[in-house]
Specification:
Blueprint (H helix, E strand, L loop, with lengths): L1 H7 L5 H10 L2 E6 L7 E5 L5 E6 L4 H21 L8 H11 L13 H7 L11 H8 L8 E2 L8 E3 L5 E8 L2 E6 L5 E4 L4 E4 L2
Parallel strand pairs: 1-3
Antiparallel strand pairs: 2-3, 4-9, 5-6, 5-9, 6-7, 7-8
Helix pairs in contact: 3-4
Length: 198
C-alpha cells in the first residue's frame, strides 16, 4: 500500500493517509479517469467501506479527493445516513480531516492561501471553486485544453463528448454558451476545460 500511495500523494501525506485507511478499514481503489467525478465513496453490501480515486489526478488533487471521500464515511458514521452528502456535517468533517494536511511540508506555498480560503466553506467538488481549480491545474501534466475564461468571446470550442459551442456573455461567474447543432444555451463554469477550435 505504501509504495502505491507514494506514486500518487505528496511524500509527507502518505503515512497519515495510510493511517486513515487503516483506522476506517477502507478498501482503496485507484481507477481510470472518470469524466464526471474525481472520487467516490460507497458502503458495500457486506459493510466494507470502498473509496475509488481517479489515477490521473495530480498529487495535490489526489490528496484533497481522498480526504473528501473519507469525510463522507466519517460524517455518515458520526451523524447517520440521513444527512445531506455535502451538507454542514460533511463540511465540518472535511475541514477537520483536512486541517493537518494544510501546511508547507505537504502543499506548495502558492496553493496554501487558496486552500485556506476554500476550506472556510468547502464545496462539493474542488472543480466548482474556479480559483482553486485553476491553482491546482498548474500541477497537472501539460495538455492542449483551455479554460473557458481564457478564450475570447465568440470563440468556437468543443467539449469532451464532441459537442461544439460558441462562447457567449458572462453572467456573474459563469458563461452562457450556445450549442452550434441545436442553438440551445448552456451555462459553463469559468474553469471548464475545452478544446478551442476557432
Amino acid at each position: 500500500m505504501k509504495q502505491t500511495l507514494q506514486r500518487y500523494l505528496p511524500v509527507r501525506a502518505v503515512v497519515p493517509v495510510m493511517g486513515m485507511i487503516k483506522a476506517y478499514q477502507i478498501q482503496l481503489k485507484i481507477v481510470s479517469q472518470r469524466q464526471t467525478k474525481h472520487g467516490d465513496y460507497r458502503m458495500k453490501a457486506e459493510g466494507h467501506h470502498q473509496i475509488s480515486i481517479n489515477s490521473n489526478l495530480n498529487k495535490y488533487r489526489f490528496l484533497i479527493t481522498t480526504v473528501h471521500e473519507v469525510a463522507h464515511l466519517v460524517a455518515f458514521k458520526t451523524f447517520g445516513f440521513s444527512i445531506l452528502p455535502h451538507g454542514k456535517e460533511w463540511k465540518h468533517t472535511f475541514q477537520k480531516l483536512m486541517l493537518p494536511f494544510l501546511n508547507p511540508e505537504i502543499f506548495p506555498s502558492d496553493l496554501l492561501p487558496e486552500l485556506a480560503r476554500h476550506f472556510k466553506n468547502p464545496t462539493a467538488s474542488s472543480d466548482t471553486d474556479a480559483r482553486l481549480s485553476v491553482a491546482l491545474k498548474q500541477y497537472d501534466l501539460p495538455n492542449e485544453k483551455n479554460f473557458i475564461f481564457e478564450i475570447p468571446h465568440g470563440s468556437i470550442f468543443q467539449i469532451q463528448n464532441g459537442r461544439k459551442f460558441k462562447k457567449g456573455k458572462r453572467i456573474r461567474k459563469r458563461y452562457e454558451c450556445q450549442e452550434l447543432s441545436t442553438g440551445k444555451i448552456y451555462v459553463f463554469q469559468p474553469n471548464a476545460e475545452v478544446d478551442l477550435l476557432k
